[in-house]
Input
Amino acid sequence: MKRCNRPMALAAALLAAAAGAEAKVLAAGTYTPEFSFVTATAFVPLGGTAAAPKTQLKVNAGKAGTYLLTFSGECDVAGPIGSWLDIDLQVNGVVVAPTVGSADAFCSGQWPGGLGGWSHPSITTAVTLNAGSNTVRVLARLNGGATLGFIDDISLVVAP
Amino acid sequence: MMSRHLAAAATLAALATLAAAPAGAKVIAHATYHQNFTFSTSTAAVPLWQFVLLPGGERIDRYDVTFTAPAPGAYLVTYSAECSVDAGAGDRTAYLDIDLQMDGVPIAPTAGAADALCTANGDPGHDGWVRRSITVGAFLSGGVHTLRVLGRLNNAALGGWLGDSAIVIHQ
Output
């Protein structure tokens, strides 16, 4: 049996190497401080600190193709019932479906006038990346009379 | 000339690589629906993408995603949509659930009506939209499969809204 251990070990090592080469996260960003805005639109922090937030995530893809992008965050809106906050996921400056435009609510005002209906919505969609360097940004937008948007505990992951 | 042990190692390595390849992450199929969709029947098939007829550009809703699983194994399905429920004033218990149906069979835990995706907020009409998301695992045989989404109204819900959806099947 001893003589057979070497090929088995080699196979195990190759299996580990192969598995490692297949499944990996290309890029990930998190931002835990509170982030709120009162302007019509604002880029959402994807990293950094409250003092120096980063609103752009760089993604290096080994090859061009289709990848998964997942974005989630605690979300709330101050405004009348019927107001909402939507996001645009932007890859290399281009908004990806189905987040184009403002009609895709991410969260909504649940109580007249103030915050109080926090939820943690999430979206996973397929995106096309170029080989090499890519950028991801998330634009948030206030709609329907919303006066303040709130997003924190943000997570963005890009994976094969 | 390759020794017996080296040949055995090469064979094992080849088998190991073949086994590992399907386990890697990979998008198998995806679709988005960039419209609002509402329904007031007890259940409704949910549109997942649109077919565009040329030359007029007429858009036809499609209610299924058909894809080929490259090999038997575990796959992930992620569905998200802007969701709201229309119910009577003060009603905060009416809710909407979905069944993710693979080849006509609901995938756990979405089978049945007890798994709310979103709930009415007590204000009549559609408002309070929130993007809800679910990721489930499904063991599939290799070959062609069809995925559908069924929406269902519960607890005196008057209407359901599932718009701007994204669905991805991946490994």
In short: Residues 1-21 of chain A have pLDDT under 50 and may be disordered. Chain A is about 15% helix and 50% strand. Residues 2-22 of chain A form the longest helix (21 residues). The CA atoms of residues 64 and 130 of chain A lie 4 Å apart.
